[in-house]
Amino acid sequence: MKGYNCLEFWKVFEGKEKVFFLFDFDGTLAPLCRHHTKARMCRGDAVILQKLKARYRIGIISGRSLRDLRRLIPFKVDFLVGNHGMENPFFPIVNKEEIVREMRQLALLLADMFPSVIIEQKIVSIALHVQRGGGSKKLLEKLKIFLKNFPELKIVGGKNVVNVLPAMSMAKGDVVRQLMVKLPMTHFIYFGDDVTDESVFNICSQRLHTVRVGCHVRSRAQYCLRHQGEVFPLLEKIIWRYCGK
């Protein structure tokens, strides 16, 4: 991975290029919190994002539900995807009512199995939240054993969280590929911080530029920022250089 100060990153914004910015939410646009319900974008950061939107198109692809994202984002973005790609405008959820009912039943079962874990039902998926250092790897292994009896489900890991989704659900990378096919943008820039974003980082395309928040030697992202606190200073620099022209 390279730092964003390298010349090839800034070439994306030269001329009259059509650029689409895509962001994860937790750990990227908002700092990670001990409890997922406390996560918020800072007011000043939201203003920066709105200024960026005045020049470029903006989308958010998150593990949160669409209902949650609409509550947390103080203005309308161009593209909004929830539940790791499952809630997206390209492919409406088939048998949604049945999935919601099954997830409710599963959430009750998991709450009995893991009483020390916070269970979040995200309408069509479930998130199991653990405290930092609270044994997410052990939880993941136990869930894998338990879900062998449920071939219609899959597990998606994350930072201090384990997600349970329908096996047929799309990943973030699938959504970005669809977006690149459907929209005639010159460049797409994706910011993410977690293992769930690696499906995007793995895409090989000259039109896609990926930025990992928090450098990791095993990540396939092209560029990296050291931490979430560097995201909005970078966006401010882009606004200062290019949005006034």
Describe this entry's structure for a reader.
By secondary structure, this protein is of the alpha/beta class. It has 2 domains: 2-90 and 170-243, 3-Layer(aba) Sandwich (Rossmann fold); 96-166, Alpha-Beta Plaits (2-Layer Sandwich), CATH 3.30.70.1020. It is built from 8 helices and 11 strands. It has helices spanning 7-11, 43-53, 66-72, 96-113, 136-146, 172-182, 198-201, 231-243; strands at residues 2-3, 19-23, 57-61, 79-81, 118-121, 126-129, 153-158, 161-166, 187-192, 208-213, 223-225. The strands form 2 sheets. The chain has a 7-stranded parallel beta sheet. A hairpin with a 4-residue loop joins strand 5 (118-121) and strand 6 (126-129). It is globular. 36% of the residues are buried.
H and E order: EHEHEHEHEEHEEHEHEEH
Please identify, by name, the CATH architecture of the largest domain: 3-Layer(aba) Sandwich
- Give the quaternary arrangement of the chains: single chain
Sheet with the most strands: spatial strand order: 1-11-10-9-2-3-4
